[in-house]
Amino acid sequence: MPNPNMIGGGRMTRGETSGDRRHFSDVKLNAPKLLSRLWRYMGKNRLLVILALVLSLSSSMLSLYGPKLSGQAINAIDLGAGKVDFDTVFRCAVLMTVFYLASAGLTYLLNVVMIRLSRTVSKQMRHDVFENLTALPVAFFDRFQTGDIISTITYDVDTVNQSLSSDLLQILQSTVTVVVSFVMMLTIAPRLVIIFVFTIPVTVLFTRWLAGLVRPLFRRRSAKLGELNGFVEEMLSGQKTVRAYGREKAVLEKFDEKNGTAVDAYTVAEAYGTITGPSVNFINNVSLSLVCVFGSVLFLQGKLLIGDLSSFVQYSRKFSGPINEVANILSELQSAFAAAERVFSLIDAKPEAQDALDAVELTQVRGDVELKHVDFSYDPGKPIIKDLSLHAQAGSLTAIVGPTGAGKTTIINLLMRFYDVDTPEDRGGVYVDGTDVRRLTRGSLRRAYTMVLQDTWLFHGTVYENIAYGKPGATMEDVVKAAKAAHIHSYISRLPQGYDTVLSDNGSSISKGQKQLLTIARAMLLDAHMLILDEATSNVDTRTEMRIQAAMRELMKGKTCFVIAHRLSTIQSADHILVLNGGQVVEQGTHESLMAEKGFYYRLYQSQFDSGQ
Fold first, then answer.
1. 310-314: long-range contacts, CB 8 A cutoff, minimum separation 24
2. Using CB atoms within 10 A of its CB, is residue 330 exposed (0-12), middle (13-18) or buried (19+)?
């Protein structure tokens, strides 16, 4: 489940650092491993699998007995004497009709079973993907595109599902057909079977060689499609910015470039994939030609009846036909394997590290927070925080200020333990009430905080549900009280259905400032001992911001607060101001003391005052 205390946004970002975006499907699995993984999902529905096997075997056996009956009917015709055993011919014709009808009915039931099986598997697969996503560390979402992840949950799972419902069914039936046809040919004319001793190895070797060539192409096709989806997701979410800067043409050109790359990858994969069918079909036709030639020789020598030759030719076509069909769907299988790789890469992505074995629950929180000699880097060799020390006493208000890239949001990441510090435990770390957070359970630590982010997050639901999100069971009275404290109650009252008004599309119908006030009301409703405001009032005007801060201070009295703010005029009443620059604390103190020093904070404040901020 998502952390209910992450008010205002679904996740933290790297803030001032620019992380690289790449694709997560780095782990390559071979076909046996992929099939083994898929079988585990299917194995959870053993009854459906067994039923599918029984239906497939029964349907194939019924349809495969037709050529045998056809041969018997032909043999019932004595060409030399001009006589026909009509009883035998009629019996064979009736049985063939019954068998083919029964086979068709069983095949229909088999399709229904396979669709249900594939639907169950895809449902479970999506569940497993999303469940693991909720357990992944924030760093994962900082590195990978949201659109790429969504593409895997939708397109790639659907591709696997389609393969299970159609391709797997085809392979299952083809396997039964090939085996039964081969046995029947052995019973009719063992000497003619020798032909396939030469043609089958050629077919197998060719398809294996081509599969090794084609699979990387389909892997690249899935990756490029995910990249295209990621780009589309980013551009649509930033559509207003794109239009405000007049970048429509540039975005369209970039889209055309990525779209062209995805289409090229698709075309190349399909082009090589479609080689298989015609090639294998040619080999099968050669086999059939040889069967006809040598079968005719045996017939002329009196070693094979014409009906048996007819049956053998039909079985040889049934024998080679499935091989050709499997070759034709090889490209689809390679596409499914590439999609399954991406799905399993998400399922296998390493979740957030488990709590230490001796980790304890954070209870009776006082809110005394201390950072001692903290070092941290997102990427090895590129330090963001260097030897940072800070002490925020319980109930105090600590403001964190500094230029972009100073490491302000990174401190919040460390406080919430979205990332762990690089500092060894014997040298320092982050402490809450005197305990290193690495010795605390993540759940209890994060529940001790309430967070309001700069990026607002509202979900499809009523205003009441959005405010009460972090506190299930909250009464309407509690929600209204929080809304009044956040100065949003009067606006909600003017909505068509008041607190029952449904918000959709991340609250696109209301202003950013109103969305921010709703997330602040959500935060006020929680009974947490520590509060984090990461540019939380950046979307409201100065007068409203001052009223909110006054209400917030009253509501959070006696609780530890951390505020990241760019407008320094809003944090003059802070108990302690931490001034960061280049990942280090350059100054700290109250507003008055820092102004008196006329150092970095003074110049920063004056620059904002001069610019009218």
1. 310/67, 310/70, 310/71, 310/74, 311/67, 311/68, 311/70, 311/71, 311/184, 311/188, 312/71, 312/185, 312/188, 312/189, 312/192, 313/288, 314/66, 314/67, 314/70, 314/71
2. buried
Backbone angles phi, psi at 294, to 5 degrees: -70, -30
Which domains are assigned to the chain? 33-347 (1.20.1560.10), 456-527 (3.40.50.300)
pLDDT at 21: 43
> Is the separation of the CB atoms in 428 and 373 below 8 Å?
yes
Of all helices (H) and strands (E), which one includes residue 197? helix 190-237
pLDDT of residue 574: 83
Positions of the chain with pLDDT under 50: 1-22, 612
Backbone angles phi, psi at 365, to 5 degrees: -70, 130
Query: How far, in Å, CA of 416 to CA of 422, rounded?
Result: 15
Return the H-helix or E-strand segment holding 7: strand 6-7
Relative orientation angle of helices 306-328 and 190-237, to the nearest 10 degrees: 20
DSSP assigned state of 21? P
Nearest to 575 by CA among 590, 596, 560: 590
Alpha carbon 200 to chain centroid, angstroms: 40
Spatial contact of 317 and 307, defined as CB atoms under 8 Å apart = no
> What pLDDT is attached to residue 324?
61
> Whats the size of the chain, residue-wise?
613
How far apart, in whole angstroms, are the C-alpha atoms of residue 140 and residue 264? 29
Q: For residue 600, give the amino acid letter.
A: F
520 half-sphere exposure, CB direction, 13 A CA radius = 33
What confidence score (pLDDT) does residue 17 get? Answer: 37
Q: Determine if the pTM surpasses 0.70.
A: no
- Please report which residue ranges of 238-247 form alpha helices under DSSP H: 239-244
pLDDT attached to residue 10 = 35
pLDDT at 193: 76
**Residue 19 pLDDT:** 37
Closest CA to 181 of 10, 66, 85, 344: 66
Output phi, psi for 362, to 5 deg.
Answer: -85, 110
What letter represents residue 72's amino acid?
Answer: Q
Alpha carbon of 31 to those of 213, 268, 340, 342, 477: distances in Å?
14, 21, 10, 13, 58
